[in-house]
Design brief:
This protein has a six-stranded antiparallel β-sheet, sandwiched between helices. The chain is of the alpha+beta class. The chain contains two helices and six strands; from the N terminus they run E-E-E-H-E-E-E-H. It has one domain. The chain is 17% helix and 34% strand.
Amino acid sequence: MEKLLYKGIVIENSLKNISILDGFRITKSWVDGDWKLHSVLVSTNQIMLISQTLTDGPWYTHFWIPGEKTIKVVFKNRVFDIDSNEKKTWKTALEYGKTLGIPEEQLDFPID
């Protein structure tokens, strides 16, 4: 297994098969309205699995390595690498997300 782990939040409701969460390192879980959310640590391979497991519709998630500037923005069957400090690198991911019906204000990719 890879040693490099990305941090992110997965909305359980966005997954076709929630059993993929069994292989993730979940650091925190909570409910927000109708959504069940999980803060996770995942490998690059697991990010690709999430991309393949997202349901149709306006869903996405994003992952980052703490202390680094690269963010992986994950849509169903599509992953974009953007730079947290360079908004111009966000353009393609933003445009793609909007084609899925995601409002631009929700495509903000916060990291800590």
